[in-house]
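Below is how a single chain appears once it has passed through the pipeline. First comes the sequence as given, then the structure the pipeline wrote out for it. We keep one example in the README because the format questions we get most often are answered faster by looking than by reading.
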Amino acid sequence: MQRRLVTILGAAGLLLPPALPAEPVVYTPEDIIDWEGHSFSGETRYELVEVDGRQAVHARCTDASASGLFLQEEVDLEATPIVEWRWRVDEAFSGIDETTKAGDDYPARIYAVDEHSILRWRTRALNYVWSSEMEQGADWPNAYASQAHMIAVRSGPPEREGQWHIERRNLREDFRRFHDRDLERINAFAIMTDCDDVGEPAEAWYGEIRLLPE
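Resulting structure:
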């Protein structure tokens, strides 16, 4: 009887093998350096370097520039909602107010974007930033566009130069929390180091960006 029930359930498609976990999606520095450049003001310099025995994207902002490297690619948040990345900043800005346009610069940031090319007012973005003055864990709307929400993952200069950090966030939970959107997918990623508002130089290093299952 038990064998017959198993056969019936299998034939009905009700007895299925367990689903395999989603494969991580990894963007190496070699991948990131080939992302499309997008300038808001001037050109931040991005180059592929080797540092501490690993490849990294080195970002240097010296001429009041604000430009980033963007990837237009769909991300399945049901399969891989976790974003994990490595980055390094040796110095931060000082005496700025990042909630204002005059202080809206960050030595390092990672964008995740739910982009709507036609209905642009519906576009929403998360900016995971290395803040200079806001406390770690703080969040606030972007001074130029409230559709982008800023989240201070790190704050201030590190305890010592050359120190790498690994960060991890749940994209799906963050879009729910900060934009009240329960998304199955997003369609753009970016990195950016900018210094156009503050007018002081900035420098950062970006390692791998990984999209992971929960």
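Residues 20-212 form a domain with the Jelly Rolls fold (CATH 2.60.120.430).

See the next section for the split statistics.
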